[in-house]
Design a protein that fits this description.
The chain has 184 residues and is an alpha+beta fold. It has four helices and eight strands, in the order αβαβαββββαββ. The chain has helices spanning 2-12, 48-59, 75-81, 139-148; strands at 32-37, 62-73, 86-90, 94-102, 108-119, 124-135, 153-157, 171-177. The strands form two sheets. The protein has a four-stranded mixed β-sheet with strand order 1-2-8-7. A four-stranded antiparallel β-sheet has the order 3-4-5-6. It starts with a helix and ends in a 7-residue tail after the last strand.
């Protein structure tokens, strides 16, 4: 992910520090006005305790008026959309196979990913397989954990802030602020 982010930073010709670290321990980082966390990163945490720790770490590294922006997949995505999901891609030099199924815990899914990349030196394809485990929670759980971490104003939307969430929403987008306010 950092390699891809670095590529985008270079293409945009901007100065942006990219840091590899553990989101459960941000103690070495300074305070920021905005912290973002996208692309299912929080859904890879093992449980609510780890999620709470991340929320507390982020809150502790935001200015008083700072914002935390993130997204997560919804229970609709894990429970209704992903089970049995398959995606396959192939071109001249590579192939990608993705299948998803329910995991053993509520609102969790396992993605079986297999990549085939053509290796001209071998005149064959190299195979790399990964098993990804994602988990999400009910919206009320996110709100409760965010409030306990010190976020007093939490706004949740769908479609990158363009729509209100509904029962068919597959991804929630959060804007969280530490300042005074109510949940939206």
């Amino acid at each position: 992910m950092l390699t891809l982010a670095d590529q985008h930073v270079r293409e945009a010709d901007v100065a942006l520090p990219l840091i590899q670290g553990n989101m459960l321990d941000l103690s070495e980082l300074p305070v920021y006005q905005t912290v973002t966390c996208y692309a299912d990163s929080l859904c890879y945490l093992p449980d609510e305790t780890a999620l709470q720790t991340v929320f507390e770490q982020v809150a502790g590294h935001l200015t008083t008026t700072g914002q935390f922006l993130f997204d997560v997949i919804t229970p609709h995505q894990t429970d209704d959309v992903y089970p049995g999901y398959m995606y396959n891609y192939r071109d001249e030099d590579r192939a990608f196979l993705w299948s998803s199924d329910e995991a053993d815990e509520p609102h969790a899914v396992e993605h079986d990913l297999t990549f085939f990349t053509y290796n001209s030196a071998k005149d064959a394809y190299d195979e790399v397989s990964e098993l990804h485990h994602e988990r999400t929670y009910e919206l009320s759980v996110y709100r409760q954990l965010l409030q306990a971490a010190g976020f007093n104003r939490v706004t949740v939307s769908a479609d990158f802030g363009r729509q209100q969430p509904d029962a068919q929403t597959t991804r929630w987008f959060f804007v969280c602020e530490k300042g005074d306010g109510q949940n939206d």
